Each structure stands twice: as C-alpha cells, then as structure tokens.
Amino acid sequence: MDEGNSIIYGLEHQTRALSPQYESDAIRFLIGTQSLKPQSNQVHVVELEEDTGALHTKVFKHDIGEIWHLRCSPHDVATLLTTHNTYDPETSQCTMGVTIYKLPTVEVIPKDLDDLNAMQGRNADDMQLLRTITPEKPEEEIRCAEWHPTDASRIGIVYESGVTVHDLNTGAPLTTATPEAKSRLKFTGGKWNPHQGHCQFAVLQDMHIKCYDTRTDCNKPSWSIDNAHRQLARDLDFNPNRQFHLASAGDDAALNIWDYRNGKEPIFTRTDHSHWVWTVRYNTYHEQLLLTGSSDARALLTAAASICDTDEDGKRLSQVLEDGVLQSYEQHEDSVYCAEWSAAEPWTFASLSYDARLVLSRVPRHFKYKILL
User: Fold this and answer.
1) Which one of 141, 253, 295, 328 has the fewest CB atoms closer than 10 angstroms to its CB?
2) Radius of gyration for the chain, computed over Cα atoms and rounded to the nearest angstrom
3) Is the pLDDT of residue 113 over 90?
4) Dihedral sign, Cα of residue 60, residue 160, residue 140, residue 38
C-alpha cells in the first residue's frame, strides 16, 4: 500500500462492527455484518500483505444474527466476541446477546497454489461457539461487550440499565454497576480503563461519562465527567500512555480530550466533522495521533500534539506536529461507524462505513518521519 493510496474492501451486507486482531504480527481486521436476512451474517477476516499491498480474506458464518459490535480477544488471537441481535420468527421478537467464538484457523494468506485454490473454492466456514450470554430481561438491549485487559476469563457487558462483569467459564454475572436511582438515563457504551489496576469500567450515559469500580456492586461512580458533550456521547477511548487522559466523541460533532481529575473543561477539543462522531481511537504508540469516524462519511486523522508535549513528570518534550486535522479520508459514502488502528503496525488503520466498505489507509509518510526523526 503506497503512501496516500488507500485500499478498499467491499462486503455484500451492511456493516458497523470492526476490530483489529491482537496477539499477531499480521495486519488483520475482523468485520461483522448487519443483515436482517436470516442466517446471512458473516465475520470477515481481512489481512493486508505488506510486501505486495494485496488483501486476503477469509469468511466465517455468523448465523445467530446481525452483528452490532465485535471485539477480538487481546489474550488469544483466535478468539472473539460479538454483540448480536437475533430475530425469533415464532415470537416475532428480537433478543440481543453476546457470544464468544473461536476461529478454526487464523491463517488468511495462502501458502501455495493448492492452498489458494482450496480457499477460493470454499464457502463460509463455521466458527466454534464457546458461550452465549443473554440479558435476564429478553427485551433489554446490549450496547457492547469488552474483554477485560488482563483477565481472559472476564468480560464487561454494557446493558442499557447497567454494566455487568461476567465470568466466561460459567457465564454468570460477578458484579454489576447501575445508574444512581434518581437517574433514568440509559447507558449507551463503555470501555475498560487500562490503568488504575484494571478494575474501572467507564460508560457513556447520555451526554455524560461515568466510571465505576467493578470489584463490587455499586451505583455511584468513582469519577465522572458531566456534560462531556452538548448532545449524546457516542464513544470514548483511554490514552494508552497517560493514565488520566481519555478522548470522547459525540453527536455535537466534537472530539474532546479530558483529564478526568478535573472534568469541568476538556483540555483539547476539535469540531472538524459536520455531523455525529461515532468513533474515536488513540494510536497505541503515538498518543498525539487520533482517528475519528462520522456520519459525514469521513474518517479524520487528527493531531493533538500540544497536550502531549510533556511527559508524566512534567518534563518538556518537543512538539513535532501542529494541532488539527492531518488528513481527511473521504472514500466512504455512508456513516463511518468504526475506525481502528492495526495492532501489528502503528501507521496502518482501517475505517468502516455502513455501506459495507472497509478502507485501509496509512499515516502519510511526512507526518510519520516528523514523529520519528
């Protein structure tokens, strides 16, 4: 893949779920489809071959229903979880759930011509279903599910009425955090805090961000950022290098960065999108680089260098980039619901839009060299 040239991969069905594959040296992303047609949904594994710029794919069945959210395990390269919606024709009702799957193979690039012919002649393969977790109330919506950062046997599931940590060995709930009794605002998403002993789970609640200690049942957050956005907050991501910084995105078209020790005002804010911002992601290695995706059909690469010019001890570092949009990626024709950095290569990322289009791109070379040199 040359600098400035993105690679586009098209799917048959609409999409809004994307995850990088972890614990691998290959640039791989997993995509989940969102088709209303029974037994037609799939998980696509897409691998970029760096030497040639070629895309290789492998497709797996996901007959349980449409995929709203997908996360690869950070502990096992072959394991993933999906948040899905299943239609029951007998009751004419939909039920959401979270299912853990294991891929039969992680190999995507064929080893030889025989292997290539075998892959091309094969239909979608089956995944091994390990466990499905469903809400106690069948009508309750599940917003997302996230792997625990260090414990492979636990996941956090964000329901509209609370966040629950589940034991994957039994599927049983371990602890639950719920909104304060006076609040009727529903949860809309969330993520584990990778710092603070891996026990905090931050959730989006309307325009607010609340973070709960998952070691015990509770209804009071450990910390909160009220009115993080002027409209609905859509996504958040923790800075992997600075333990008190996180980024958020919302329907006010804003990208905000916060120091949650003082959450009254963001320490960095941009409104470069013209519509709702659905996703925000920090670069794992270079914290000044952030990705956002929006309903304006664009993915933006933004620099927030001015708040990354000191280390944790306050020592001044050189600021190598100017704040603002570095590059706009406009190959999509519908809402960009997901944008993810590769877990294997820090300069490669993927964006996914509802029109079943995955776009793989790279940070422009001159920005890369400015950061490295």
Assistant:
1) 328
2) 20
3) no
4) negative
